[in-house]
Amino acid sequence: MAVNYFAEDVKMPAIKKRETTDWIRRVASEYGKKCGDIAYIFCSDEKILEVNKAYLQHDYYTDVITFDYTEGDKISGDIFISVDTVRSNAEQFGTDYDEELHRIIIHGVLHLCGINDKGPGEREMMTRHENEALKLR
Where does residue 68 rank: exposed (0-12), middle (13-18), buried (19+ CB within 10 A)? Predict the structure, then answer.
C-alpha cells in the first residue's frame, strides 16, 4: 500500500514526499483509518476541467477532485489537484502557496475518511478538520 505522486501537464510541486506521506498516514489514523493505495495527480486547470466534465458531468474548474475507492477502514483513491487553482486560491485568500497546497492535499484525504463538504454546515466542518490536520504537519 502506497501513496504516490504524479504530475500531468505541470511541473511536480516541490513537496517533501516522504514527510507528506507520513503526515497523510497520521491524519488518516486520527480517523481510525489506514492508508491503502492513494494516487495524487497534480495537473493544470485544463486537465481538471476535463476530468470534471468526463467523470462528474461538471463544467467548471475546481481545486481538487477525489475518487474514493475506500474499503472498510483502508482509504484508497485518486486525488486530482489543479496547481493552477491552488495558486489562484492562495492569492485570493492571502495565504502561502505551500500552505494552500497542503490544505488541498489533506482535503482529499479527509474526503476518503468520510468527511463531506457539500451539505449545510459541512464546508465549515471540513475547514475545521483541514485546520486540525495542518497542525499535525
Answer: middle
User: In the block, which residue shows the cell 492513494?
Assistant: 38
Dump pLDDT digits (tens) for 8-43. 999 999 999 999 999 999 999 999 999 999 999 999
pTM of the model as a whole: 0.96
Distance between CA atoms of residues 78 and 91, nearest Å: 26
CA 49, 54, 60 angle in degrees (round to 5)? 30
In total, the chain counts a number of residues equal to 137
Please give the span between the terminal C-alpha atoms of the chain, in angstroms, as a whole number: 21
Kindly report the number of other CB atoms within 10 A of residue 93's CB atom: 11
Question: Would you say the C-alpha torsion 14, 19, 24, 27 has a positive or negative sign?
Answer: negative
* CB of 48 closer than 8 Å to CB of 85: yes
Proportion of the chain in helix, strand, coil states, percent, rounded to 5: 50, 25, 30
Residues whose CB falls within 8 Å of the CB of residue 91, separated by 6 or more in sequence, listed in order: none
DSSP state of 71: B
